[in-house]
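Q: How would the structure tokens look for this protein?
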Amino acid sequence: MSKDNSTTTYESGNPYKDVTIEEAGSGIFQISGDLGEGIFKNYQEKLKNDYNNSPLLQYLFKDSRGRLRNANPFIKVLLESFLEQKGLAFPRFMNLGVALKYFPRELGSFTIDIGFVLRSNIDFYKPNNTIVEDLTDQVKTLRGNLEFPVLISLRGTKLQSYPGSRYDSLSFRLTEETEIISSLVLNQEGYFSPDELDENICLPKTTRQERRPGDLELIVGQSGLCRAYINVFGDIDTETKDLGITDYSPVLVVKK
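A: Here is the predicted structure in token form.
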């Protein structure tokens, strides 16, 4: 998200009119250049030495502009340790919420993984079932209780070995840095305007069934575990169950 093309295109109620995403305080940017080259090299070494070149983790790549692009949430959480060494981190929900609320059209052309939605403690999609059980227990341990559905951030989440997982025996370990948000709106598929987005949690305050000009969409899945991401239209998609899908449109966005 370079400064030369990041002025807002959404006017209504926008306190950040005529400023860049960086100036607005979201601090979100894409990794490229020497920084991206170094992180990419370190990632490839760790993939070879510690993960036996797991097919699930091989799809991090650099595009023609030198930007790092990531293909699934497993890759993203593995990258976090390399980002920390450079003084970087994945955006919080609030950072993404500011960008989506006031600059929705600038997030187009790519998808941005933000986390998972956990809707129940069982999942009939077999690759996810053991991970769902484990994440349910982890959320209860961290929060003391669990009110479905919850949005779980990739920020602060680590990769761990988990023999019961059908994703190359890998799963996720939540930490105190992982954001966990309970919200019933995660079950309310429909449309909302950027003005109706709660920027603190990167979710709409409510949705409606009729679509109005300029609206975004909240796309909702069924029980169990789904990937949560901002898609190429700026919509929030929480429907995709395959956590290891190899999609080349996601970009890696970070903040200082």
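The radius of gyration is 18 Å.

Confidence is low (pLDDT under 50) at residues 1-12.

Upvote if useful.
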